[in-house]
Amino acid sequence: MSFSKLVEIKNNFKFNPNNSCKNLYKGACVKIKNSQKTFQVVGINPESKVCWIREWPFALEVNKTFSLEINQITLQTYCSDTFNEK
Hints:
86 residues; globular; 6-stranded antiparallel beta sheet; alpha+beta; 15% helix
């Protein structure tokens, strides 16, 4: 399978709330409800069904993470390797 096909599959991965803890991993990029931005998962607590995320790409000097219920994730997507240089 080609890299572009894998990216397409990752970009079109719909999140199933019943299996979200199984599919989610630290470092994954995701979309969340009510936002067009991309976020990166920095921590997961499967027992409480909560994860900690930050906006992607992020400014290196800013550390703004927040917790979110995993069921608020709508899509797992590809993380670009571009960083903000603010």
